[in-house]
Every structure is written in C-alpha cells, then in structure tokens.
Amino acid sequence: MSNPYAKLPGWVEYGLVPLVNLAVAFLVAGLVVLLVGENPFEAAYHLINGAFGRGEYIGFTLYYATTFIFTGLAVAVAFHAGLFNIGGEGQAYVGGIGVALACLWLDQTMPWFVVFPLAIIGSAAFGAVWAFLPGWLQAKRGSHIVITTIMFNFIASSLMVYLLTKVLKPLGSMAPQTRTFAEGGQLPKLDWLLAIFGLDIGTAPFNISFLLALVAAFGVWLLIWRTKLGYEMRTMGHSPSAARYAGMSESRITVITMMISGALAGMMALNPIMGEQGRMQLDFVQGAGFVGIAVALMGRSHPAGIIPAAVLFGVLYQGGAEISFEMPSISRDMIVIIQGLVILFAGALENMFRPAITRLFSISSRRAAVVAQTKGA
Amino acid sequence: MDSIAIELRGIDKSFGLVHANKNINLKVRKGTIHGVIGENGAGKSTLMSILYGFYQADSGEIHVDGKQVSIRDPNAAIAAGIGMVHQHFMLVENFTVLENVMLGAEESRILNKGIAKARVELKRLEREYALEVNPDAVIEELPVGLQQRVEILKALYRRADILILDEPTGVLTPAEADHLFRVLEQLKSQGKTIILITHKLREIMAITDEVSVMRRGEMVATRTTAETSVEELAELMVGRRVLLRVEKGEAKPGDVKLSVDGLTVKDSRGVTMVDNVSFNLRAGEIVGIAGVAGNGQSELLEAISGIRRAVSGDVLLNGKAIDVTGHADPKELRDRGLAHVPEDRHHVGLVLKFEESENAILGYHHDKRYLNGVFLNVDAIRKDAEQKIAEYDIRPPNARLKTANFSGGNQQKIVLAREMERGPDVLIIGQPTRGVDVGAIEFIHKRIIEMRDQGKAVLLVSVELDEIRALSDRILVMFAGRVVGERDPDATEGELGLLMAGVEGRKEAAE
C-alpha cells in the first residue's frame, strides 16, 4: 500500500511506457522544428529515411549503435551496484590506448583475428584501470564516484592530447593521431550480415565489433543475474545496509564493479579505431560515453533494453546527420535537442505518464475481473 | 454526547489493483475516544490518510459535525478541525518547541508578531490541557514523550477539535504511555474527539469508549469497549480464533554459547550507545533485552553480529573470540553458527526488490549448494526457497514473487526461515514481530520457542514488553546503553517499566 504504483503487465512496463515517453519526446521535438519554421513531417521523413533508407544508412546506424551498446552496458553495470559511473567518456578514451598499442605492435605482421583479441584485452584493461582509480578512491577514501569520474574524464582528455601529440604520433606528421594501421589493425565489415537481408553496406563502417557488443550484452546479463558477484552487486545497489548485513565487502564490490564498467566502456574504442578509422585520432569518443548514460536509463539497465535503446540513439545520430544535410536550417544542434528531449522524457520524466497508464489498466483489469466473476457465477 | 463528530460514508479507495478501503462506514461520537484497530495492511492508515487529506477517496463522503466536507489536502483537514499526530513525528529537530508549533501557521511575514502571539496561545493551551512543556526547549534535546506532546500541541494550536493519533505508544515507555493516556482523558473531558489507531489490544481496552475493527480493507465491526473483550477483538481482527499467550515449558539452560564482556559501542558521532555491557547466553534459553527504542539495543545487536565495530569489549562465540573491535565479519560469524534476524527487515534483512528466492539466500549465497562455480545455481536456489515456503507457510507460495509484495508477517517469515533453517548455535533476533499481523505473531513465537527447545541460544530484543515477558527465560533491561537490571519473566510490568525509564536502575547502580 506504500507503493501507489501497482504492478503493470510486463509488456506495458517495458513496452508501452517507454513508447509513450518516446512519442511525447518526438512530439515536442516536432514542435521545436515547427518553431524553427520547418516542416516536422519532412524532418521525420529525413530522420527515418536517413537511418533506414538504404543498406549503407542502416550500416551507419548500427555502427553508432555498437558504440552505444558498449557505453550503455558500462553505465548499466555500475547502476546495478548503485554506482553512477559518469566516466565512460574518459574510460573509452583511455581504452583506445590499449587498442592502438595492440595494432601498432602487430598490425604489419599478424592478421586481424590475432590482433583483435589482444586489442579487446588491451582496451578492456586500459578502461578498467581508468575506472579502478575512482572506484578505489571511493572505496578507501570516500571520494564520491560521480565527482571523481567526471574529473577523470578531463584528465583522460589531457593525457590523450599529450600522447597523440608527443608519443603516439608518427614523426613528421602534423595531425594528432597515430599512423594508419596496416590490414592487421582493421576489422572486417559485416557486409555479409546485411547482405543476408539483401542490403548493400556501401561505405558504412559497420564491423565485427557489433557482434562483440552483442556477446558483451549477453555476458552482462549472465554477470548480473546469474553469478554470485552479480548477486552481490545487485544487493549493494538496492540496499547497502543489507549488503553489509550479508557480509559483503562494499569496497571490494565497488572496485570490481567499476573495473568491469570501465572495461566495457574501454571496449567501445575498438569500434571507431579498428572498425572505422584504422587509426586513433584525437576525440574519437565524441560524447559516446555520455550517450551511454541515456542508453542505460532508457534501457532500464537491462541488456535487452540497452540494445534497442542503443539502436534508437544510432538512429538519432545517423538520421539526424541526414536531417541537417537535407534541411540546412536545422543544424546538428537540433539533433542534440531531440536527443536531449528523448533523455528528458525517457529518463528523467520516466514516471510522468505512469500513473495515468496504471489507472487505465487497473480500471480495465477490474472490469475484466468483474466480467470473469459474473461468467463464473 | 450524542452528536457525531465525524462520519465516513462509503469510503472506497484503491491503489492500482490493491483495494485498500472497501466501502467504509464509520461514526465517531463527539467527545469520545474511538479506537481503530486492525492488522498491518488492514487499511487503517489509508483510511486516516484520507481523513487527513493525504489521499483522496475514490468514492464516499466525509461529514464533520453533520456537514459534508471535501478534504483535498491537510490544510483542508486542519480547516475542518482535524489534527493528526503521526507515528513518526513531523518535527524540525533543531527548532524550539515554539518554532515547531507555529511552523506553517506563522500568520505574518514578520516572525516577531507571530512568535509573541504563539507564546501566549501556547501558555493558554498548557493551562487548559495540562500539557506543560518549555516553549524554548530545542526538540532534539527533549525526550520522546515530550516530543509527542509537542505534536499534540501543534494540532491544538491549529484549533483541532478532532485528534487522530497513529500508533502513539510505539516509542514510549509504559510510564510515558500512561501519561499520554491521562492527557487524552483530559482532552476528552474538554470536549475533544480522539481517534486512536493502534494494533495493541490492551491500549484499546484501557482507554477507548468505542472501537472499530478493520480487516482486509473492510470495517468488520464497531463495539462499545466496555462490552467487548480482548479475545473477541483479536478474533475480529484476524478472522479466526488466536492464541494470545505463548505455551512454553521450563528452560533447560546448558553451556554458555555467547559471552559478552564489557562491550562498548559508539555511533558515528562518537556518542556512546552501548556502555560496558556484559552478559552470558546459554544453550536452551531465551534472554530478552527490554528497553525503550534507542537505548542501545540496536547497536548491541549490530556489534555482536559484526555489522558495527565496537570500541572495546570481548565477545566469545562457542568459547572462541569474535573480533568485535576489528575484523568481525557477518559471513564468518554465520559460518561459525551465529544467525541474525535484524530489527529492520526492510532495509537490512531483505532486499525488497529481489525475488523471494533471492532473499532466501542472502548472506548464505557463498554456500556451495547454491552455486555452480562462480554462477548461481538458480534451480537449486528456487527449489530451496520453495521448501522453506512450504515449511514456514509463507504466503503467497511463490518463490519468484517480488519480496515487496509480501505482507509484513510473510516477509518476516522469509527472514526467519533463512536464519533458523540451518540450526545455528546462537540466534539473535531484533523485533521479531514488528509490523507483523496477529496470526503470524503466533507462528513466529512458536518457532522461537522451538529453537530454544532444540537447545539453541536465543537473544531477543524487542520494544514490545509483552513479547519479552512472554518469550524470555531471563530479562535484561537496557537504559542509556547500559544493562540496568536483570529480572525473571514474571517480574511485573511496573517493575520493568521503572527500569526501562532508568529510575530503578540508577538506584541499583548506586547501591
């Protein structure tokens, strides 16, 4: 009785409520487009067409989605233990070092399937180290993780500028980036996957790290719901006092969770570095770490929700780019506004429509119960 | 005396699928004390929240003094002359009594005028109702009984004619409770109407004129108190006959299982909460720790079970030391045969968002039979949970239901099943029946006695003196962090009450 929101059927809870939120977000975004003096239906057409209109567009959409799956999972894992890791951006950035080192070392002598596993380990290790420090600082020194992970984003940014201008840059080059990797440092595209559906990938960088992202999503599900560690993480996330009572070590779980979270964020670097650019550039993360927060919120921190949420943000990124291309008066910032609205309605105002929907369902289910009773009698 | 102060007609309220109040009718006569009893979740709090404007009824009418009123929020309730004394006080701890009383009723932007007026009014109320309290005392320095008095003054200051008191004696010593009842009698004689919500049958019998019983959202009966009995009320509450007294045989104490020597515990602010406490707990006996909430019992339990660090003291479990000042770890203590049913099952003993089966292994999740390597053996966990559900009659019998959806009594059974099932040598239990319905209380008490009869050592902490007296073989009384006396279970309530208030204890310590 203390919970005024009664339990809703699963498809309403995880299907209808997010859809209503999303619809409202697009409705408001449409109004903004209208205010700019453009036709919102035209914008919507370009958004959808830009994301799904051609095999190439779909490839781009899924390429972005791959990135967001990794960062979304990173945030979600930490959420489950009650930790708010805002440092996905920095962890992904630093994770890039692991990818770059593996590629620079072996790309000329080894095929991609030898370099790839090493790059995975490298990216995860560097990302984990970057998350370990804030985790350890919270566990042992009580420095709040939200503050430290934000600060570590800035440190990561400065560190990478230093590395890419002084250390990893080839001699004589003016660009702050590593040399372009040889074939061994580039991931194969998933053109065959799209070809199954009769789609042509074109120039889209949709690559094999997408499959790794799906494996990671399954791994996160296993970790959270099927391992002892996941059980301890969830206990701590829901109730730190219950975790203490059960004899779980808060500092141990904090540190381990942050390292797993950081490793997932770090693995995001595989996608742009090995999958698209074939080199590590300055600012290759491009805010994906922050988008991960929105993805995790929208996906309810569940892998099965994070994948569609990541695809949605992939659509916004790819389709949004098309809008600004086709409709010059809508700048890319407009896309940021739409993304912001999605985050606002799906994340922050998530419960806005829930009471109304709950009421609707309690009325209809009570009616159904009455009908069943009269039939029974 | 015949006029009706409050009448509820056909009040109906649902939260989603939960039908909390079903067509409730209630008449409260002016100038009487009217009790409302019912088990947890019977809907009494919902009903009173509707009356006080926290919730809106889905349908039904509220009449005050014969006129229909619409109570949309607490302000409307106050305007209609209804005041509420909440179970958890709504006071600003670092404000004075005067500031708290006038909070929200300042009447002017400039405080000075309001303060002067409030001071005069407070004086008048004190005189009229014999509710003395220093208006300049800071709330956090007042004892709980006086804080409650401030809550009552707050309601009276807002000219309440009808006072609703929600479980008012939960935090009081017996003496303070008696004092409260005298205040209520006084208010009644001045023509105020009082609605007393409680689950304590004895209080109903002691003070009310009429009593209404709620069960599962329905108002099942209204009785004149003088014409009913505790047994009848209990039966009305539960819907079947209940055994109010616990049957138990002689204790056969054996070896010392837990020995506590000079245990001292401080809280995070450095205040001494447990002060040099020593006692022994033997196999086959139940030692009860009586005391008003907040006198160090919680900290004592936490220190022994390894959740909180002690400052000094020695604790031996089965003759071997527990490192209470250093590395005592709940996991290690569980392995060594100490089980702990914590006082706060909502935040400590259970994770409410977990499935029942997940809570059934909390703290024992290292056990090999629940694991396949690093993975959880979900089948084994669920099967194990189903066994416990059957054995402890946990309802609904669904191991996959979210724990929050079980009633208080069934939640407590989940914890008890988990902690008792392994047959620990020492069982420490805090508030075994807090927020638990009468039917489940009977079951839980029986299980505790069974544990004792199997030769287990049981340490019981409860703020319900009746429970302590019914279950314990020896009673220790705690006051201000110290054990101020040991008594037999047949000690009178008055004797224990004085100890709990620290009166007797000081004398004893001085001697």
Automatic annotation (TrEMBL), chain A:
Source domain of life = Bacteria
Q: Where in the cell is it found?
A: Cell membrane
- GO terms assigned for molecular function: transmembrane transporter activity
- Transmembrane spans: 12-37, 57-79, 113-133, 145-164, 192-225, 253-274, 337-357
Q: Keywords on this record?
A: Cell membrane, Membrane, Transmembrane, Transmembrane helix
Could you tell me which Pfam families the record lists for this protein? BPD_transp_2 (PF02653)
Any one cellular component term from GO for this entry?
Answer: plasma membrane
Q: How the protein sits in the membrane? A: Multi-pass membrane protein
**In its UniProt entry, what is this protein called?**
Sugar ABC transporter permease
Q: Which organism is it from?
A: Ensifer adhaerens (Sinorhizobium morelense)
UniProtKB/TrEMBL annotation, chain B:
The places in or outside the cell where this protein is found are: Cell membrane
Q: Which cellular component terms (GO) are annotated to the entry?
A: plasma membrane
Q: Which UniProt keywords apply?
A: ATP-binding, Cell membrane, Membrane, Nucleotide-binding, Repeat, Sugar transport, Translocase, Transport
InterPro entries noted in UniProt: AAA+_ATPase, ABC_carbohydrate_import_ATPase, ABC_transporter-like_ATP-bd, ABC_transporter-like_CS, P-loop_NTPase
Per the annotation, which location comes first and is thus the protein's main one? Answer: membrane
Show the GO MF annotations. Answer: ATP binding; ATP hydrolysis activity
Please list every transmembrane segment annotated in the UniProt record, as residue ranges.
none
Q: What residues does the ABC transporter domain cover?
A: 6-241, 258-505
**Topology term for the membrane:** Peripheral membrane protein
> Which CDD domains does its entry note?
ABC_Carb_Monos_I, ABC_Carb_Monos_II
For the keyword Iron, the answer is no
The record's comment on protein family reads:
Belongs to the ABC transporter superfamily.
Question: What is the name of the protein in this document?
Answer: Heme ABC transporter ATP-binding protein
